[in-house]
Amino acid sequence: MIDAQAPVVPKPEQRPNRPHFSSGPCAKRPGWTASALDGAALGRSHRSAPGKAKLASVIEKSRALLGIPEDYRLAIVPASDTGAVEMAMWSLLGARGVDMLTWESFGAGWVSDAVKQLKLSDLRTLDAPYGALPDLSAVDSDRDVVFTWNGTTSGVRVPNGDWIEDDRAGLTICDATSAVFAMPLTWPKLDVVTWSWQKVLGGEGAHGMLALSPRAVERLESYTPPWPLPKIFRLTKGGKLIEGVFKGETINTPSMLCVEDALDALDWAESVGGLSGMIARSQANFEAIAGWVAARPWVDFLAADPATRSNTSICLSFVEQPYLSGDALAAAPKKVAKLLEEEGVAFDINGYRDAPPGLRIWGGATVDASDMQALTGWIDWAYGQVASGNA
Questions:
Q1: Contact 350/334 with Cβ under 8 angstroms?
Q2: Which of 130, 218, 255, 358 has the most CB atoms lying inside 10 A of its own CB?
């Protein structure tokens, strides 16, 4: 139903300088050009001295910027964050019962793999619908737990690590790909942490990072899973950790072009104030959206609890209005996203395919808050076009 109440507004004059708000691969750092890759060790073996030095530099720069404890091992692994999570699950799970937490698509994917592929017998799933978190107090610290720190497809994150016991017997396996470099992580609470370069750093895809606590290493060296492990998942040999993997001797051949890009991104992160600067940039992007949402009755965050709202994968829903409801309301986000892409002011912001209809706007540190502010005016315009029947 359409009436004169629909908020029709003129096209804004200000356009985002960079219309890249995709949730992965994400925006390159401000000022990036292909010349940033000029120093890449192209045509050289990744096992050569220059190649290994660059890979080791990615590991050590990442460790320093993130404040990863010195006794944690850190490696570059194949297949992006997905590869890192699967490597951890296939190598570590099965020694204890497992609690799997899921409240969005990727967490649900890890549950599916644990049930259908690993066929774990002692498994509990603690779930919640999009927009909410499971009951974190129900997690049993005697069991392993697998969870995402930030639900990339729902915009819902855990508020902190306080719910994880310090004296836990089980391992905590955390998919943190859209949280690392944008949110403070409580490293002593986490035994396995995974991420990729393509999220907050704005790097290229296909390469993952895997951090292991001493407790995770102990599990690897004392437990042999009952299923066969593909070569790209193997972190031990003869019951001992393959130390070279954590010094830049990657399990498979990496792209040295992507490695150079990751080094450039890490140098940029250091130049904007390191971890605290990166978090501040992400938070400024979130606040630009939050202030805009607060002033409009027709849009809201998918995350119901403000304490759980992501400052990277910012997920929004349109609220039912007298002039927009039912099927028209459900179709509105996709139409808005299409209009904005046609105008060249925002790319790839329609909600994830499995999520409730809405917009998903990346607010990681490589996005400028001024572009986020400019985007909100364009969403006003596009929403008005759709709600008034002009699109």
A1: yes
A2: 358
